């Protein structure tokens, strides 16, 4: 089923005027914190929530698949690197209006979707909350017919910083083209800031440095997501350079706004790199909620989402607590029995997680069936 709901605006305002009642709730919450406090264990009021799980939010980076598909068709390695960097930058403009935070996934929650492209090829995605303390989301995107594999993990850490809150987006994305052995792109994320919590207008900004790096191609791109100063600068600005790792030679410069137009400059020649205003989001296909498993994101949070859509904050809080309380009870029961949580789709590898599916065929059609079956087949119930 095509995705008819939970489509965030792509041209929404980054600012939000907080009603006095809601501001009072925030002030009461914040009064209990000290600067630098970890916000992950703090129950946030429901009016700050975006009506979808973080596991689904990650799919925003798969919204313009033509960029990554075309990248693999480029024989020039520098051009491929430029295209992969463009792919990474293409997902940030998709956002809800105002300052909203996706649901924190509960342990064992998962989200699944797929995409069908104009040429009949497909892509598949699965994300799972593999750890709760610390919170870790692992995800996998694959389009075997296009030789694309993306594996990542996200470890968000939220901190209170006075009049703002920061979400430090730790983790790494690994992009690879399966027909190009050893060519792996390692990507890190910028951090997310919510400003104006105590006073002023609330707004969301991306800040700090992200990077795209491919050791085999000897290329790296450092991307500075700029936050606006009190008196200077602009919102949503970005500046980056694509360089040779070995020599430091600058090949391209990137500028503009991640929410609007991005530019790339080579030897003084400035061209449009990505235009968020004209880019079309490719719809993902998701099973109807009544066909989803109980711990699948949209079904799991369906009552909370419904309450948020009619702005019933009291009911939203109740429904959110029901899901979280049930998760706490399950975790306590496991701990009392000494039973560890074992993720369904992912397993630890090094400092991160990898997909459990092994021995994926080099034949695209066979690999397509392997991956689709692995993601979408419901496991048999234990006797």
UniProtKB/TrEMBL annotation:
Q: Which InterPro entries match?
A: OSBP_sf, Oxysterol-bd, Oxysterol-bd_CS
For this UniProt entry, what's an example GO CC term?
A: membrane
Q: Name one GO molecular function term.
A: sterol binding
Looking at the record's lineage, which domain of life comes first?
Eukaryota
Query: Of which family is this protein a member?
Result: Belongs to the OSBP family.
User: What is this protein called in UniProt?
Assistant: Oxysterol-binding protein
Task: Specify the species.
Answer: Linnemannia elongata AG-77
């Amino acid at each position: 089923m095509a995705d008819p709901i939970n489509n965030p605006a792509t041209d929404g305002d980054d600012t939000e005027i907080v009603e006095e009642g809601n501001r009072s709730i925030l002030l009461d919450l914040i009064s209990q914190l000290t600067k630098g406090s970890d916000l992950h264990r703090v129950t946030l009021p429901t009016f700050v929530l975006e009506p979808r799980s973080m596991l689904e939010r990650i799919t925003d980076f798969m919204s313009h698949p033509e960029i990554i598909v075309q990248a693999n068709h480029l024989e020039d390695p520098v051009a491929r690197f430029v295209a992969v960097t463009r792919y990474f930058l293409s997902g940030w403009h998709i956002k809800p209006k105002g300052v909203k935070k996706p649901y924190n996934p509960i342990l064992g929650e998962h989200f699944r979707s797929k995409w069908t492209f104009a040429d009949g090829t497909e892509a598949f995605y699965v994300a799972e909350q593999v750890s709760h303390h610390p919170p870790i989301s692992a995800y996998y995107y694959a389009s075997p017919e296009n030789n694309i594999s993306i594996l990542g993990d996200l470890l968000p850490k939220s901190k209170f910083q006075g009049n703002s809150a920061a979400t430090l987006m730790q983790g790494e994305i690994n992009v690879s083209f399966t027909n190009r052995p050893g060519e792996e792109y390692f990507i890190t994320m910028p951090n997310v800031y919510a400003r104006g919590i105590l006073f002023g207008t609330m707004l969301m900004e991306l800040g700090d440095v992200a990077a795209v790096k491919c050791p085999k191609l000897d290329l790296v791109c450092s991307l500075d997501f700029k936050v606006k100063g009190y008196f200077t600068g602009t919102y949503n600005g970005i500046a980056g350079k694509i360089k040779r790792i070995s020599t430091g030679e600058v090949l391209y410069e990137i500028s503009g706004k991640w929410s609007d137009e991005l530019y790339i400059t080579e030897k003084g020649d400035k061209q449009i790199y990505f235009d968020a205003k004209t880019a079309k989001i490719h719809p993902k296909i998701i099973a109807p909620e009544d066909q989803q498993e109980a711990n699948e994101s949209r079904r799991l949070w369906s009552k909370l989402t419904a309450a948020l859509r009619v702005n019933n904050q009291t009911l939203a809080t109740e429904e959110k607590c029901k899901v979280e309380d049930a998760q706490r009870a399950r975790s306590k029961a496991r701990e009392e029995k000494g039973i560890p949580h074992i993720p369904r789709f992912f397993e630890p590898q090094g400092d991160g997680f990898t997909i459990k599916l092994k021995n994926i065929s080099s034949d695209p059609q066979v690999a397509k069936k392997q991956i689709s079956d692995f993601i979408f087949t419901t496991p048999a119930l234990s006797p």
